[in-house]
Design a protein that fits this description.
By secondary structure, the protein is mainly alpha-helical. It contains 13 helices and no strands. The chain is globular. The termini are far apart.
């Protein structure tokens, strides 16, 4: 997991450098994006649905953590999914003038939350050996080692999705020529650094991996928080912080996805473009 994370982080930086620098690299990446416009559109739609879904069912994870008798039902998750969707729509329409302030506040919470969560987690949790973290290879899905490695890429790639979000908002950004490239590189650098550090700390306190994967909450990190902190209340507080970040992510991803959709409609590249581009 650690080495996969490092590879994906480096690839994301390489892609963003190519997009912002122009020249041969910019032409290559721009050519690919021009031909894969529909794929980009579909990817952003899928990313949006995933963020809404995760933001909703993480509430169910909290309910299971605090109320063991809670009857986990999928339709509960669907209703929570729509609740997160409505919140994101409200912030992108009625409260859109507050969006820059919200994004700035969430960035601060995101960076400070790294220390708020990781320090107690590493200090209080029972730790495994460095060999288990850096050298042990587990393949628990009945796949070959190579196929397992590629399947494991999905989780790491998800953490770097939407790194190109600033590009789709460039028409609304002041001094976009400087701000957008800076935001692309800073987002990958900050998230790559914080994510890599958190991953190392998390793996040191994960304990028995099969037990962590089979947690009743449905989220590995929720079960690990409770196990490492030895407190349901502290674990609930930390998971609530993650929930806030999920909601903020949903708001931001909806903003970027709507711009991608409108941009393609403006070029008459989508069904119903004549209606969508008037929005």
């Amino acid at each position: 997991m650690i080495w996969v994370n490092s590879a994906i982080s480096q690839n994301s930086r390489t892609l963003n450098v190519g997009l912002q620098d122009g020249g041969p690299a910019g032409l290559v990446y721009g050519f690919l994006f021009a031909w894969l416009g529909w794929q980009v559109f579909c990817a952003w739609q899928a990313d949006l649905a995933a963020v809404f879904y995760l933001g909703g069912i993480i509430i169910q994870g909290l309910l299971v953590l605090n109320y063991p008798d809670y009857d986990f039902q999928r339709w509960h998750g669907t209703l929570l999914f729509w609740a997160i969707t409505i919140v994101a729509i409200v912030f992108n329409t009625l409260l859109v003038k507050f969006l820059p302030w919200i994004e700035a506040s969430i960035c601060v919470i995101h960076c400070l939350g790294f220390f708020v969560v990781l320090i107690p987690l590493v200090h209080l949790g029972d730790k495994v050996s460095a060999h288990d973290v850096f050298a042990q290879y587990l393949s628990l899905g009945n796949y070959s080692p190579g196929l397992s490695w590629f399947v494991g890429l999905i989780s790491t790639v998800f953490g770097f999705m939407a790194a190109d979000g600033g590009i789709h908002l460039s028409e609304e950004v002041r001094n976009a020529r400087k701000v957008v490239p800076s935001s692309l590189m800073l987002s990958v650098f900050i998230n790559g650094l914080l994510g890599f550090g958190f991953l190392i700390g998390f793996l040191f306190v994960i304990g028995n991996v099969p037990d962590a994967l089979n947690t009743e909450t449905g989220f590995v990190f929720v079960g690990v928080f409770k196990q490492a902190l030895h407190s349901t209340r502290f674990a609930t507080g930390f998971v609530a912080l993650f929930f806030i970040l999920f909601v903020a992510c949903a708001i931001a991803v909806l903003a970027a996805t709507s711009r991608v959709t409108w941009a393609l409609a403006r070029d008459d590249a989508l069904p119903g473009s004549s209606w969508i581009k008037k929005v």
